[in-house]
Design brief:
The structure is a homohexamer of 330-residue chains. Chain A is built from 3 helices and 22 strands. Chain A is mainly beta and 330 residues long. In chain A, the strands form 5 sheets. Chain A has a 5-stranded mixed β-sheet. In chain A, strands 15, 16, 17, 18 and 19 form a 5-stranded antiparallel β-sheet that branches. A 4-stranded antiparallel β-sheet of chain A has the order 1-22-21-20. Chains B and C meet through β13 and β14 of B and β13 and β14 of C.
Chain lengths: 330, 330, 330, 330, 330, 330
């Protein structure tokens, strides 16, 4: 049932973890070490946030959103022995084109942000928000987090928050994404798409709409790679509410059908986490909690989520997988 | 002259109070106990703010805006021995229709927020922003803060910040409100309306306009129940300025004619309080000070204002009634 | 059942009429005499449109929207022997306050437009869009179309298209209106309100919403005084669609419950008339058909509608009452 | 070289044609019979426009955008002996799902508009703007213009103006489209996408951008099926300029590389036709010329374009293919 | 008193003229020859409008706004024996820099529109809306309408409708203009500025504001060169109203103090002319009347105004100078 | 080469300074004494920020933006012995008109903000954002920071951030400014203008554009008086990025040609300082760093910048002139 066994060389260490603090009632709690990566972790970093982490060899690796001090948005590779202490490359990832025709879309390369990483079949796939006449979904892969290869963009603009499923559904690759417009868009639902080859995509299905008068009334977007469980795919995602003074980004969860993931089996009524501490409330973008990755340790029922705080720093939240499933089922 | 004696059963305790701190020059100062109610005061509360408090029996009672962790907005009843320590019901107020026809508007009940409470004749009236095909003014009452009854909505949408006067003016009930639109509206003045029966309203009069180039240049709305004084009705209200980065909500005051309250006798030039401390500057809506209730102790010249901080918490401010009147008269 | 007999002094002449032209399939057809009132009918008129007509003595009388060559919007009285040839006063109507307190709202009088006229009990009531710190519903009356009296505004701003019912419903006066905002608003539904005295209004009920993806997807507003039939109140109204190049105003119809008119019994799926001829497509506001009055001749089953064309001229359309009821019931 | 021979059963008649009128200098001229299809061609049609025509058996067939008198947008089949006189079905096209999974997207079917038709390999493919949680590109086919089959939508929302190429490019099917947002969008470029199976799409390439300070400064979208010539694909398209009073839709042309159609070989500097006669300037959407189909008669060098006028009627324009190629090459 | 004598070589012919038609009551009437210049007057013209005409030698000369069929906006010179029949150069005006430093702003030359021409001291000055990092006021001159010389732009962006006075005021050159923003701006007042050298400008004074609820409620801009009279400078200008469906541009007039032209002596209450005939109501921009030049024949009391219709054609209107002054003084 | 010697009476003390803290890598570092002036420095101040300081006699003087508790914006004079401890006048600066005609623009005086001060020839010039029918550039001067004189406004509205050069360029006075619109404008570039007399301005040249996808993608505006160096004018300026939740104001630098300052020799790629500490991130306008003045000590290579934090307080940053020049040259 676990999607990860193929990549084990040396087993990764236990996932980062802290037990639930006293007095914490919710299904998810913040790490006392937050933010685990500060905004000036690199010499020229303005901020590091909205980043993706996976088990890798005998530790962890990741792809990090780094806005530099020019405020150029890019993605960088990083490695960690424990998932908490990170060495991040100062130089952005350079994607080699997977074939000649990919060069076309690289000529227009402008920026890259909000990456996700998914172990799929035999390698680590990276998806990110890629500039090509507007934001769309970039797709690449790596075997070693050193050399990276780029496929064609998955969709036409305007799209963000593309997240691959960790295995084929039927015989097709599958991705969630959020089509929208080319600005700081006030709308956006989650869709599901399939592909025979990771290059051509179709069979687009609507998955998650916004919910009026709730924490997710303005837009919703997939977060970490969906987590396979016996009951369905657990999708942790962000939802946005428009207050008098801009957006509030919170984190929630839903359960999608295993075989037809565009069918929503259950959806958490409440947010799992909303911006309530200073490193989430104050920063380059106030009031943002934005999940991009999750680590699961099924034998201990532990789930650790990596999320961006205030579009400025990287944070961790912990919870029990079983409790979060209970939360989603209401 | 006082509007409150009829409701005394056991006299309420002294109103919450702290003397003016050293070095504080303004007519209003913050409680050192702020916020007196935190955002997670209830198990499922996301935030508690913009709430109304009145003397009740031998203590205090109130109606509280509670946004839950789904970000559903609702109003809850609460009780306190001293006005500072509060027990708030976990379950929202359920309004029984005052007559059969009120059921019509309850079928469309969606949300409730920003309540005010007014002792009027023989009971406590509650007004709030009520969802009925857009925001409008809900009207209800209670004798005991346990069972609540709902009248028809006072106005057509789109309206917010409906505040009853604590006695009839002439032989009519009277209410202030702020008609506007159905979004996070960038305009809004205060109007006065009359009613023979609290159900049918007319004689609408313009009261307070915004003032260009000041702290109240974008919109204004009534706060606590107007306070009757020999010189006129003291109206504490909120005013909004549009900065480069959204709205700033401050608190100010004006004096309205006793018999024709749509006539403004005097109006404070400056704000009484603006967002300047963290619990007002940082939260779900940054930079908000929003007054909804006031307690007056005429024999000691004390005035205590309940206000919401950053749309997240409940706070107190204290002042001398006579000094605030001086402030308003300039 | 007919609401009009009481006002007969000399019976009015037959209503303006033309038989259905050959080849005309719809339930409503344009008069060959359109526009019956041109834009320069008065020496200083820029346009005359969106006007209301009723049987009066041995002919017809009306209240006309006249925008003068300053583009000031005002209402003028007019008289006609046949409903087609009109003598309109050059001077706008001057409303005498019905009581002293009405003077308050007249001090702020700015503009008046889109009148409706309704015979109710013993006089002709006029409602119109009245400027008082934003658009709201002005209410007045006349016995003779020479002297006019003004009541208080019915509602708080922001409201337009207030239309009285021609008799009490239960023991209450009743009005339809369309609350909205203070600009050229892109939204607006029809609501119902009641009053014991034509001054204080309450019991607000939602009546008609917009219908997505149709001719009435942006906003809807009541047109002529509702027409009482055995099956319900026939409401002719305007609906607005937003095209790539602005609004298109069309005319449609619905049937409201006789006793609880906020309940919609039936609603025509299609428009009755949309802008398709030059005097509706070209003018000060392109693509506008805006009905404000209707004359019914029950014994001949004839219905004649007065509507504005392109916010510039007054036009007529004719139909059979029974056929329009069929149209509404689908 | 010609893409059409396979479908000849009985050769179609000559394409509709009129010689260039005296005094007409441009490469394209209007038919004297315009509009060839009026707005009320069908009993319940509000307007018929933006429609697609192809040779079919011994005459012509087409798919027509018909907005009915509810202003519901739909597509209808039609047949003509000469391309000018049309019999259009009163009932909209009903698309049978090409496979079971297509039913998913049909459950959300809301509206259909702006069709194109392309003969491709062995059948007529129809593409249109299809409602599925926003506008996207519907794809279907027919052999006989009587029964129609629907494939999955080609892309995620938000997209319009999907136009198939009439043969494979390399071994892939190819389509142009214009991703944008979900309103009356003020931006939009033309993109190229490929597919192995007409269901899964990828290899998205940018083709045509808007050109500042010209007739096509706001958005551009493909028109008829691209016309293969020895020099490249001739693309007739629409371009939009934003004036003080809304959009102006004109028609222009470009030449795309035969093998890599995302490479623009040449692009006409001027519009080919802009709204200059009443049936293009006045209607449901003023100032619109919108091409959707073209007929080519290579042996006579004749090109006839079907275009919508003012979103209300169907019109024809004629020109010489060689002259239009000269025009595009500047 | 007349500003024109110096330029007489052969006296110009009488100005274009038609007497007031019967039934025409207003102070200004349209020429029966309108439009005197059609949109396709030149081989590549899309439209010719908003143009300026002056007496020149024994006839007339002018600078014309010509949008070509690419919709590029440019200015062209033209000559006429009678002011009605025009020969317009096919090639746009090429401005030689008046000094080396003017080349800087010509490097960024993008577009030119809405010219005015003024005889001032010893030559004809041309002002126009000139693209330089946004719209601003270009200034040039000619002696012969064949070679043109360009000075520096008068102001920083964003500005339009720059109009020179025909003589110095005091010892300074003087210009009216309308600062605003870089789009189809919804606001704009007329200002007055002075210069010692036509290159450096200062002493900016506010002249004309918009007037709420009138034909000129959105923006106002100077039209022809101000006409000197004994009572003051007669300024014909355009005013804009925002209707439900965009802007309506009308023409009005005001009288400015001779010595301090920023002081408004009188201002016409009504528009002089608003879009009411097809060539003003229908075209590339519906509902536009836009005056740019005037010819005065003092001995006959005749005034002829050149104005653009619907941003498409050139039109004439005639009136008596004395009557228009009466109109302005109300 | 130094522009300051003429004003020395008693040499000013060393400029405020702190050495680079350990661990600080960038070319600019914050003072440990920040904010050096708090929001309530004056009895009625709401905030003090965006202010200008110069050496004066044996200490320092400045002009300060003070928003009072009415949120009226005004400028006040202040004096300091050391540049850190300030005595600010409670009463705003009263500008005497430099000549009679300046009174015209003072009649409309509404507000004043964001001052700059420049020693030029023989006096201290003050420029600021001045209300005159919209924001524009006020110009005044003082010899003693006690009496101030006002010249005419430099430009037409709408303009902000006017900054004088400290000497003539060629024989002309020179100023940078940022024309834009009348709101919280989302666009704005820096322009250069010249004047023979500080009253009439011309020769407007574009200097700095925004840079897409960087910290300065929305608007840019000059900060302190440009600093003359052998390599060019060092311009410290602010740049604005639009995030999901409003603007972020950062500080950067560029080098302008000494003789033709509209030519940009070099421009720093990154920001020098962005809002990253609480007094810059939280306040009346979150996320603002806004430089208005700089002190240079050439013999020690020291540069100290005065900047506003969060539109609320005054702060200092320090750096080495030579390092900042290196930073700009990249």
């Amino acid at each position: 049932m676990s999607a990860e066994p193929a990549r084990v060389e040396g087993a990764p260490p236990p996932i980062p973890w802290e037990d639930r603090p006293d007095g914490e009632a919710g299904p998810l709690w913040r790490s006392s070490r937050n933010p685990i990566i500060g905004r000036d972790h690199l010499p020229r970093s303005n901020s590091i946030f909205n980043s993706a982490v996976v088990p890798f060899r005998d530790g962890y690796a990741g792809v990090f959103r780094v806005d530099d001090t020019r405020r150029t948005m890019n993605v960088h590779a990083g490695r960690s022995p424990d998932g908490v202490t990170w060495e991040i490359d100062e130089v952005p990832i350079s994607f080699a084109p997977a074939d000649d025709r990919v060069r076309d879309v690289q000529q227009d390369f402008i920026h890259a942000y909000d990456p996700r990483v998914t172990w799929l079949e035999d390698r680590y796939y990276v998806t990110w928000c890629n500039g090509y006449h507007g934001p769309t979904i970039g797709v690449g892969y790596t075997h070693d987090f050193e050399s990276f290869h780029q496929l064609d963009n998955a969709f036409l603009p305007f799209n963000r928050n593309g997240v691959l499923f960790p295995r084929r559904i039927g015989d097709r690759y599958a991705m969630l994404s959020r089509p929208s417009d080319n600005g700081h868009t006030p709308f956006g639902d989650v869709f599901y798409s399939e592909s025979p080859d990771l290059t051509h995509w179709g069979r687009h299905r609507h998955v998650l709409a916004t919910a009026p008068w709730t924490w997710e009334s303005t837009k919703v977007g997939a977060g970490p790679t969906p987590i396979e469980t016996e009951e369905g795919w657990l999708l942790v995602y962000h939802g946005v509410l428009t207050s008098c003074n801009g957006f509030v980004y919170s984190m929630g969860a839903a359960l999608l059908d295993l075989d037809e993931p565009w069918r929503v089996i259950a959806r958490g009524r409440d947010y799992l986490l909303s911006p309530q501490v200073p490193y989430e409330q104050v920063g380059d973008v106030p009031n943002v909690v934005f999940p991009c990755a999750a680590l699961v340790e099924r034998e201990t029922d532990r789930l650790t989520i990596y999320y961006g705080g205030a579009d400025t720093v990287v944070c961790l939240a912990h919870g029990r997988l079983s409790e979060i499933l209970d939360f989603v089922r209401g």
